[in-house]
Design goal:
Elements lengths: L3 E4 L2 E4 L4 E7 L8 E7 L6 E6 L6 E3 L7 E6 L4 E6 L8 E8 L10 E4 L3 E6 L1
Parallel strand pairs: 2-11
Antiparallel strand pairs: 1-3, 3-8, 4-5, 4-9, 5-6, 7-8, 9-10, 9-11
């Protein structure tokens, strides 16, 4: 069983940085690809970044390339999203998710979700 808990959201000024973390209390974390989605008010939830179980593959949506970095530590059952150069349009609820696989091109279909953490970027 995968149980995901996010932390690290908050309010930051444009140009600032935040680091989101997601911890899994289960025993199968290293078998799953992990990802971060975000959902702004009135918009669909969209994949932001994802990482394969061994960290050999990563995916980023175009709007965050060069600004966000996803990483994982399988020994600690955690996945992180380092967000630099934040923009007001990055404001959203960010969700951690686990999926069986990550396919090249960003095909990532979650089986498990965290509860979400709010990120607000002021201009």
């Amino acid at each position: 069983q995968v149980q995901l808990v996010e932390s690290g959201g908050g309010l930051v000024q444009a140009g600032g940085s935040l680091r989101l973390s997601c911890a899994d209390s289960g025993r199968t974390f290293s078998y799953y690809a992990m990802g971060w989605f975000r959902q702004a008010p009135g918009k669909e939830r969209r994949l932001v970044a994802a990482i394969s179980p061994s960290s050999s593959m990563t995916y980023y949506t175009d709007s965050v390339k060069g600004r966000f970095t996803i990483s994982r530590d399988n020994a600690k059952n955690t996945v992180s999203l380092q967000m630099n150069g934040l923009k007001p349009e990055d404001t959203a609820v960010y969700y951690c998710a686990a999926a069986r696989t990550l396919v090249v091109g960003g095909q990532f279909y979650p089986s498990y979700w965290g509860q979400g953490t709010q990120v607000t970027v002021s201009s």
